[in-house]
Each structure stands twice: as C-alpha cells, then as structure tokens.
Specification:
The complex is a heterodimer of chains A (118) and B (141). Helix content of chain A is 41%, strand content 31%. Chain A is built from 4 helices and 6 strands. In chain A, strands 1, 2, 3, 4, 5 and 6 form a 6-stranded mixed beta sheet that branches. In chain A, helix 1 packs parallel to helix 2. Chain B contains 4 helices and 5 strands; from the N terminus they run βααββααββ. Chain B is globular. In chain B, helix 1 packs antiparallel against helix 2 and helix 2 packs antiparallel against helix 4. The model of chain B has no long low-confidence stretch (mean pLDDT 91). The chains are: A alpha/beta (118), B alpha+beta (141). At the A-B interface, helix 2 and helix 3 of A face helix 1, helix 2, helix 3 and helix 4 of B.
C-alpha cells in the first residue's frame, strides 16, 4: 500500500466523500488539509471521510479534522467519519475526539446524518 | 521474560523518515514482548516526540540528525531521543485541557498531551554537546 492516498467523490449535491488510506502523520497531513480546504472553497461543507484504509494517524493528522470540523460547522456543515480501524479509533479516543465527531459504519448512514444537518 | 535489548536509529530531520522511526520502534516492541495494543500507543508517543523535534527543535528547513535509542530490560521499554536543534523542552509545557483545546479548534500541544498520557515517564534534559535529550519510559503491565 502507498504511504498515503486520498480520493474524493461527490456523493450528492453538497456532500463530498473523502477516502483516506495509508499513514496520516506530520509528513502527509498537509495534503489532506489542502484537499479539504479546496472543497470548503467550492462551497461544500458536508464531508464524509472513509477511514477504513487508514493504517495510522498521529496528532498531526487528527489536527486536520479538528481544524476542518470547526470550518464545516461554522458553515452549517459537518464531518462524519466512516469505519475507522480499532487503532485509529483509539487515537481519537485518547484525544477525546470520539465525542466530537459522528462516527458511522456505512456510507448510507453517513449521508443520512449529513442530510439532516441544516 | 524476553532478553534485554538495545538498539539505536539515526534519522535526518525530515518527516518522511517518521515511518522508519515507527517501524523501528514497532520491531523493538515486538521483540520485547509488548502487546500490540500497548505497542501501538508507544509507537504513537515516540512519533509525537520525534515530530516535535522536527517541527520545534530543528524546524522544517534545518538539516540535522535525530538519534533514537531503545533499551528494553527489566520490564521497562525506554526510548531516548537526542537532537542538536534549538532547545525545546516539551516537559515544561503546561498540561493541556484537551476538551477546552478542542472546543477552541486548537491542535498545538496535542503531541505532548499524548506522550504524557501514554508513557509512564517523560523526562527532558539539556545536555552538553547533545543539547536536547528526551526520555520516554513505559513499564510492562
């Protein structure tokens, strides 16, 4: 698996899915921050982020989500995380982020959760 | 009980080598008999410490070397991180109130928060000739 890979997909009007794979650390976080910033600049503030292929995250990577959820929510959007692995979920737990982010097990549930957010 | 182990890794000041640091620590933890769960967290704590050296000690542009020494013996896993960058003492930073921090959207200080939360001991020394020396210790449960 490559060290880091991001894919973007429009799930429906106003909702973008990010798929993040590999290692999200101090070396790779800026790439994700830039991609998210570009999506916000296009006027989309509802993001689903599929973490099922993310093998590792450090606080530098978690920082991207901390920063982005503020921007999303200030613009009536949100960030929903999808299927983090146990080791990635543990880092969110250690940082207290599991109480801040909505975590879903399916893309459909993530979209439903984002749709209801007005 | 696993045999005492000792090894050392030198990396350049470049975040691309964080993956090499993590693999080195993970290998030493496996050989030391730590559980995967504890091991993942210790790898994270060391990544945070080395990232701090790269971001605060040397900064993104300075050339420099970081030495990571592991000693595993008598039920403890000890990691010593040495660098010659700017003086940076993570232990002197005040404890972070993570909830308030996150509510404010702040992310600085989370690395030190994780190091303290995961490891049993985090000590810093300013040493002649080396400059920064950070010691992280985890005791086997």
């Amino acid at each position: 698996m490559p060290a880091f890979r991001i894919a973007k997909e429009n799930l429906e009007e106003g909702i973008t899915l990010f798929t993040v794979q590999g290692f999200l650390d101090a070396h790779t976080f800026e790439e994700l921050a830039k991609e998210m910033s570009d999506v916000f600049a296009s006027g989309v503030f509802k993001l689903a982020v599929d973490l099922s292929g993310l093998e590792y995250i450090s606080s530098a990577g978690a920082g991207v989500f901390i920063e982005a959820i503020g921007t999303a929510q200030q613009n009536d959007g949100d960030i929903v995380l999808l299927r983090p692995s146990p080791s990635v979920k543990e880092v969110f737990d250690l940082l207290g982020l599991s109480q801040i982010f909505t975590i879903k097990e399916s893309r459909e549930d993530a979209v439903k959760s984002l749709r209801v957010r007005v | 009980m696993p045999k005492p182990l000792r090894d050392k890794l030198l990396v350049s000041n470049d975040t691309r080598y964080l993956v090499v640091v993590r693999e080195f620590i993970a290998r030493m933890l496996r050989l030391s008999g730590f559980t995967r769960e504890d091991g993942n967290k210790i790898v994270l704590a060391v990544d945070e410490a080395v990232t701090n050296v790269m971001e605060h000690g040397y900064g993104r542009v300075d050339a420099g070397v970081i030495e990571i020494e592991v000693r595993s013996e008598d039920g403890q896993f000890l990691v010593v991180i040495r660098d010659s960058g700017r003086v940076f003492n993570p232990v002197s930073t005040p404890p972070v109130d993570v909830r308030a921090h996150l509510r404010a959207g702040r992310k600085k200080g989370l690395g030190v928060f994780l190091m303290r939360k995961i490891m049993d001991r985090v000590d810093y020394q300013l040493k002649d000739g080396v400059k920064n020396e950070l010691t992280l210790v985890k005791y086997a449960r």
